[in-house]
Amino acid sequence: MALEMDSKNSNSAVTGDAAAATTKTNKAKENRNLAGSKKNQSQNLVNGNGTAADGPATKKKCKKNRNKSPPVSADEAALSNGHVEEKKPEGDGDADADANANVVAVKDEKAEGGDGAEAAELDTEDIDLDALHDAGIHVNISCPGSELLTVQLSSMELVQEIHQLLMDREESCHRTCFSLQLDNVTLDNFAELKTIEQLESGSTIKVVEEPYTMREARIHVRHVRDLLKNLDPADAYNGIECTSLTYLNTITQGDLLDKKKTRPDSVDCTPPDYVTPGVFEPPLLPLHPNFKNAKGPQALKVLTTSAWNPPPGPRKLHGDLMYLYVITMEEKRYHISACSRGFFINQSTDDTFNPKLDNPSYLSHSLIDLLSHISPSFRRAFQAIQKRRTLRHAFERVATPYQVYQWAAPILEHTVDAIRAEDAFSSKLGLGGGLSFVSCSYEEHIPGQTRDWNEELQTTRELPRKTLPERLLRERAIFKVHGDFVTAATRGAMAVIDGNVLAINPGEDSKMQMFIWNNIFFSLGFDVRDHYKELGGDYAAYVAPRYDLHGVRVYNAVDVEGLHTLGTVVIDYRGYRVTAQSIIPGILEREQEQSVVYGSIDFGKTVLSHPKYLELLRQAGKHLKILPHSVYNERDEPVELCSSVECKGIIGNDGRHYILDLLRTFPPDVNFLKLQEVKLSTELVEMGFPIEHRHKLCCLRQELLEAFVEDRYVNFIRIAAVHLQQLNAKKPEETQSEEKKQLPAIEEAEKENKENLNVNETPNDKENEKEKETPVETKNAEAMVNAIREAQSNVATSNEIQAAEVVKQACAAVGSMKEKEFDFRFNPDVFSPGIRHVDGEEGTSGSVAKQKLLVQDAAEFLVVKQIPAFVKEHLPHSSPPIDGQNLTESLHSHGINVRYLGKVIKTLGQMPRMDYLYRIAVMELIVRATKHIYYTYMQSTDSMHLSVAISHFLNCLLTNGPINPIVSNDEMHKKRGGNGGKHNKHKSSKGGKGQQQPAINQNGGSTTSSSSSANAYDWTLVTPRSLWQQIRKESKAYWDWDLDCDSMDSAMNKFGIMRICLLRAFCLKVGIQMLLREYNFDSKHKPTFGDDDIVNVFPVVKHISPRASDAYNFNTTGQAKIQQGLFKEGYELISEALNLLNNVFGAMHQENGSCLRMLARLSYLLGDAQDALAIQQRAVIMSERVNGIDNPSTILEYTHLSLYSFANGHVGMSLKLLYRARYLLVLTCGEDHPEVAMIDSNISLILHALGEYELSLRFIEHALKLNLKYFGNKAMHVAVSYHLMARTQSCMGDFRSALNNEKETYSIYKSQLGEKHEKTRDSAECLRLLTQQAVLLQRKMNDIYSNGKLTSDLPPIHITPPSMGSVLEMLNTINGILIVQISQRDIVKVRSEIEKHMKANTDVNEAIKSMVAAANNNGESEVLAPQDNNKEQAATAQQLTNTPQANNNRSNKVTKSYRIVSPNVFWDC
What we know:
Elements: H1 4-15, H2 18-23, H3 26-34, H4 38-45, E1 79-80, E2 83-84, H5 95-113, H6 119-132, E3 137-142, E4 149-153, H7 159-168, E5 178-182, E6 185-186, E7 204-209, H8 214-228, H9 234-238, H10 248-251, E8 300-305, H11 313-317, E9 320-328, E10 333-339, E11 342-345, H12 367-374, H13 376-391, H14 394-397, E12 408-409, H15 418-425, H16 453-461, H17 468-497, E13 514-517, E14 520-524, H18 538-558, E15 563-565, E16 568-573, E17 576-582, H19 592-595, E18 596-598, H20 611-624, E19 629-632, E20 638-641, E21 648-651, E22 657-660, H21 682-686, H22 702-727, H23 732-757, H24 766-795, H25 800-814, H26 848-874, H27 884-893, H28 901-909, H29 915-939, H30 946-958, H31 969-977, H32 1024-1039, H33 1048-1055, H34 1059-1070, E23 1072-1075, E24 1094-1097, E25 1100-1103, H35 1109-1123, H36 1127-1145, H37 1150-1165, H38 1169-1186, H39 1192-1207, H40 1211-1229, H41 1234-1249, H42 1253-1271, H43 1276-1291, H44 1295-1313, H45 1318-1347, H46 1364-1374, H47 1384-1398, H48 1400-1415, H49 1431-1439, H50 1444-1456, H51 1465-1468
Parallel strand pairs: 3-7, 12-23, 15-22
Antiparallel strand pairs: 1-2, 3-4, 5-6, 5-7, 8-9, 9-10, 10-11, 13-14, 14-17, 16-17, 16-25, 18-21, 19-20, 21-22, 23-24
Helix pairs in contact: 1-3, 1-17, 1-36, 5-6, 5-35, 5-36, 5-49, 12-13, 16-17, 17-36, 22-23, 22-24, 22-25, 22-26, 24-48, 25-48, 28-29, 29-32, 29-34, 30-32, 34-40, 35-36, 36-37, 37-38, 37-50, 38-39, 39-40, 40-41, 41-42, 41-46, 42-43, 43-44, 44-45
């Protein structure tokens, strides 16, 4: 799609200094041109340029074709820089649908802008959309030594994009220093093609080789190195350069789209042993299949800089730029000179410097050409590398937005690499002041300066955002700068902990030290100067950065113009928590007391306010539900605040208004604070609340406040409806009677709601719940709407006083902050100690008592409503969490903090059908408790013994074998007698509890004494028993949950946790990379883990995720269309969302993967299985690259791809994909999981179709066992499993068993669907056939038994294997897809019913608002409901929690809804 063009402008605008980019100076263009690193080059390959990521966008460059969505397969077009070569746009799309997409875009843009745009502005927006969908032109490119190339470009692209195109093509990829000329005129790299007057369709652009400079020569050498290492996975295993792994093409042995359909008899369907049901501990080696052959051929033995560098003065005057040293595969050694004309061989040797040209010299402009000339082996190897590189999918070559780390890695060969060495030991450690050798990241390209991160971050946020192109440019700029900042902050934090950065206060205690590196400020997670002494000390200091990051996230999401936050990244590395922040201009030049103009620096003793900050924060508070409040300062003067007291406002030297220290953005959680003035409800007290947490910074989540206000709003509507009915009562007596009954009736309704949410009792099957609950809910909603409408028709003529009284009573009943308005906002300081509040009148929003009650109600709502709602949501198992990360994201989406995990576990433990979730929750709790201990353990460990200490810790945690850390006694004695070295540079220096074992300190620092030299070896004193006791103690102290087990072994057996699953979860949680090998956890003779098994430690990084607002709106609207059954409209909207995401994020992002998954599903539902396969293939690769090869999202992507693969006739590939998905799932959470049942059903069905009946029976038996456990014996899942089992057994000749199983199927269908349902009739027919076959078989057997031979000529028993069509139909059923033939009239009828229900809330809101307007003198007072704010607020409120993880979950739920096999499944599809 042509919307891709704007991202190119955006990308180039911020690849360099974003601040300079916005000033549009010539220097800005030069800075942008400087950014030529591998990461930037890779990102530009498909950086919103309509690549495979676009799905439907790949072939289309013009507006009329943007809604037609067949993706381009690999054999149709060669992807190069995202352009389709020598291809023309295909047929026209649906004009009406296109117009509809434009209308939706206009609507969403107005909602996002929130500036009350008039109709004229809507027209403008529509024009902008049309302009972005540009037709494009065909251009010929003439490159030296290669054929004429024809490409299709957009007139809105930059000339720079043609550079990237050529650097990605096989025949021209080795060229980096060239210009593009048209009619002998050099083109400006940053000019749009449409601005070039002579350029027209069919024009020929000539590639002209340019002279090298030092910088260009270095860039060229790095590019050559990158080409030679293109296939080497070392960077991905080492976690650098934003590279990551994907194994899809390894599993499928090539591109799926190139595969031919396979015949069933030609398929090797034998599953590996570790995939068959019953595996206890899955092996680890299959996690990285075929990694030994991934590196590719070796082209050179050595390519490095020569020791003769730099060129001496005389040689500089002859044009020498640098010298290289090469050893070829033929063992020949060459010294190569780089000059302005290219590269040549000189006469130098290892001992003699002679830079003159050798004879022959082979001068070549390209280093690749020179090496190919002097080394035949290099030429052959380079051609092989290039061939394999171009065969790889485009998504395999693009850098990811953030680094993905692998928790297991093989032994990697460490080769000579000068570029890697320079990257590690020059400017990337902050030690160099100039250029790093061939290091092409942006900060090394600007002589004498580093990037001003704060200026870039703030400038990008100040970019205009009124039109769609402006928003795309702005959001792309924000995302690009943020990604670079996260990468730099992570690198800097690792350098700080590794001791490579000098502190700015080196004379102070190590834990109080602060650092500045690359214009980023770094601080450690310790309580500096007892700042958090009253709040929990180091415990509070450790969690404060995380809460501050939450505050930065929500204020960035609100995006108030003029209000600025700091770039913030929180990094956990080697046991330390490091906070990286951008630097406010001028803050280092003066004391903090002189800088702060708003808030307090001493927790409320001194409070300042500022009118500009009040204005800005009041705007943000409307979205965040923060109540403006007043407190007394040190002079007893009231000071108004619109945030927490801790929130500080500083006006920088640049004149911008910054806010920082946002750790208390949201109100406190009183369930974890012991306060004398707070009395919790009896129900909470019985549950053990309040719990005194180890720190006093516990806050409620923003998602909880949203849910709480929504719940109160529903009650507000319900109560108002009751009162409105009373206004229309015919008789006063009846009215009075109703008034007396009203409050008890409301309480009864609320009691019923609580009973509905009570999940402690075992529920019925999901299908029964739907049948029972849906009619009741629908009836109540319709009655409410009808009542309000009836009252509304008469309210205009009613007494206005009565109407006002209705609103007043409804507000009082729900606890609104205002007497006559629905208003729920929270005071985050209401329970803060030391703060004196200005108390208002009782019952008003200024009443402190009322503010406290509201915060208490929200905390109670979390326990009473949200935890049961969380459990209830997962009862149908429609989107079950697979690991602890999934579980945490689901808890957070309900507003439940992880500190409530113990309470959640207690609830889950009472429900047998939630056993898998109970096990995942227990494992997550154990892992988190162990993490707390491990961080303290790591802080007391010498850097020389990190690998030994980590392996010892893992042995204590996971094994039963001998525990003997290998440390020399002499060395230990020497260390104990010495000064302790520098191992504990950043460790806490508080008094300890003795030396037997480090005390737990919430990861914020060891409480052992750093002055004691013996602490370096305290880790050797840890034993399995002592570690387990610490874990038990931690689980009780932090989560109030008793791990009632004597050892880790007993816990594993009790909860069904596999050691390999726990190892994976722990490594990912704390950042450990293990050696890829098989581990014997039951070894009795030697430790399971050795120091060689610890390959690396990597950082765990937390940061905000910039969003794409317009894409989000398109995606949300598209999913709403899908839920209404409007698949084509939904497809078009989500295609447009994907295109916008490509513009903002580039080709690689989690959001893009969610859109691809949905598009593939829709293509399949619309009957285009080939398109579904092509799109889903991209979704799988993207998930592996962005999420991880064993991430739960990747597992689901594999299962979807398997279905589409089977539908395209790739039966063998379908099985391999299912085997991979099953292995990853078992490795992650074990076999006891509802998702395993679904995968096993799929495997069984395909094996059955291939005639492998015994294997098929093993898988379906396991699936049936799980379905019975998790869905009950009357569920539709169980019926399908029984039916599949009967089919398999009948093919094996076991008709008796088959008959019994099919009877179970018939019984379930009959009870759930009725006798007349098609499914029931089909099952009855199957029973008849099975009975007939069983009777025939029995007659034969009886005849043989009675006479010893057959006496009658009975007809043979026919066992007909199922057709592939019937197997596909059953696969669809298992995966929740049923194709139902219905008439157009029925479609219209169902659609109208759906729309009617969707409009119910809107009708209620309009009725309430009309009534309130009449009651309050023509609308002087408004009802402030979440849905009734202006469109900008509504859009923002939806997106405040729009993290990638949340979006991924949301997309999973939508996709997984198709997989619910139930009586309602016909419309789930």
